[in-house]
Amino acid sequence: MSIPALELNDGRSIPQLGFGVFKVDPAETERIVLDALEAGYRHIDTAAIYGNEEGVGRAIAASGIARDELFVTTKLWNDRRGADDTRAAMGESLEKLGLSHVDLYLIHWPTPAAGSPVETWETLAALRSEGLATSIGVSNFDERYLPAILETGIVPAVDQIELHPQFQQRAATALAAEHRIAIEAWGPLGQGKVDYSGGAIGEIAERLGVSWAQVVIAWHLASGRIVFPKSNRRERMAENVAAASVQLRADDVAAIDALDQGAAGRVSSDPAEVS
Ligand code: NAD
Questions:
Q1: Separation of CA 129 and ligand 1 centre (Å)
Q2: Is residue 1 over pLDDT 70?
Q3: Mean pLDDT of 86-97
């Protein structure tokens, strides 16, 4: 299985298709991530708040896969802000992961109620200079929150935002594109909260003889986004990774683009309300 790589604006390379571990039970994480690595994933997306960094770390260690063949992302949680606390939080994440560096470190949410993100963001840049994170970025910084980050002159490599066919975040993705910030689509399948099995997606799936989830993943990939769908089940891990070889036509991509409902399509939290 060949997974395409994207070049980030900092010159680093990222596997475009990875495996996310939101809501993966810490007690089961080692086995589930080992299954994902076995299925061919080399990019794992976790976060301090998921409580499963230790399991991810154990799986990496047990896999025997060379560190430089893996891409590991973790994220700074909302109750850690400012230079000292951000440094401390990153140290804790690295210790739990059993790693000397992560490939990507993200501010998880903008938390506007907590004030300016600038000191925290500049700390991530310092941690990158020190080699603790190879690339840095933000998450859930839509067009309302990205400008404050850009004003620092330190451009994020990625912005990880909720994005799926009915919620395509046109304003945030346009702003990110101006700065060559790669979009990582979280909840890429709609988190199981939207039925994407019918309509245009269902018709494309039927024509190609693939699943609706594979069509949606292939649409993200064809659109230049990074995705890491989550599943605890080995057959779905394999199904999702195989989406890398599903070829959509331009009119398929356009048909899914047309499913956007704007803000009404959001299925998870509005960053304005997350503190
Ligand atoms: P997702 O869209 O990947 O949906 C996951 C659900 O889809 C699974 O629980 C399963 O029920 C279903 N599913 C998976 N594969 C399927 C298949 N082949 N067929 C049918 N159903 C299938 O949602 P997610 O897990 O929330 O998002 C993916 C990753 O994004 C997370 O694991 C996490 O790493 C990241 N994430 C980040 C944030 C953030 O704030 N930065 C928030 C949520 C998720």
A1: 31
A2: no
A3: 98
- Of 263, 217, 257, 271, give the one whose Cα is nearest residue 3: 217
165 within ligand 1 shell (Cβ under 6 A): no
pLDDT band at 172 (very low <50, low <70, confident <90, very high): very high
144 CA from centroid of ligand 1 (Å)? 24
Please give, one letter per residue, the 3-state secondary structure of 56-112. Answer: HHHHHHHHCCCHHHCEEEEEECCCCCCHHHHHHHHHHHHHHHCCCCEEEEEECCCCH
Which atom of ligand 1 is found nearest the CA of 109?
40
Q: What's the first-to-final CA gap in the chain, in angstroms? A: 40
Q: How far apart are CA 249 and CA 54, in angstroms?
A: 41
Q: How many helices (H) and strands (E) does the chain have?
A: 10, 10
pLDDT score of 237: 98
* Average pLDDT score over residue span 56-72: 98
